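Handout, section B. The chain below has 271 residues.
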Amino acid sequence: MTDYKKIVPCLDVKNGRVVKGIQFVNLRDAGDPVEFGQYYEEEAADELVFLDITATVEKRKTVVELVKKVADGVSIPFAVGGGIASLEDAQAILGAGADKVSLNSAAVRNPPVLEEISKEFGSERVICAIDGNRVYVNSKEDAPDKTLFEVGDQYCWFDVMTHSGTKSTGMDAIQWAIKVKELGVGEILPTSKTYDGTKDGYDLEMTRGIAEATKLPVTASGGAGTLQHILEAFTIGKASAALAASIFHFREISIKECKKYCAKNGITMRL
């Protein structure tokens, strides 16, 4: 089968509703997750991601019943994250109809859980979500243990954030991505806290850095605002998939439009 790039809408869910914010805050209601799932199925989305964005902060489990309702309405691959912290949690979500589980905060807190889930269900069903925040330094000596990227006359590295982007870990996102690959993760979903919801484009340095360091499928996330941004995720960011939320939710750009644009510019898509 031809290796095509994927367009992936994301349902950020809070209190049973799809919401969208900027840099993980200022959330506004976007609609019903079940209806959105069915809409994106009709729109020819390649996959669907469901993130219960406050499950970890509120110290509760992902809403399994809601996951089941969404899964029942779609046939495309469906990934779920938020509040998944154990093999039992993963089992419940996959049992409710999800094809993949995504871990973020729990993986940072307890890395062996990734290995446990991947051994039980297969690496292709385990995603590690990495929320990265840009940290700027003036010289390489200011952050000798970090993976640095040159930005103008400065350097930056990516700090792994947890609890929906509210807590800094001080961990380097590129180094963490390499570690989770060793633990059996099959995909990585890096989201830029810096760019999330801004519509200024993906953080291409972070996306490309993780893709090149791990050679795993990487889904670009956080900041899509134009068709060009989606294209750049593939051409510059080396992503296997491009995830977006508000531009799709509020009908600013359609998934079919995205696919046609990327195909026209030399990217293999499932049209």
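Note. The mean pLDDT is 91. Compare this with the example in section A.
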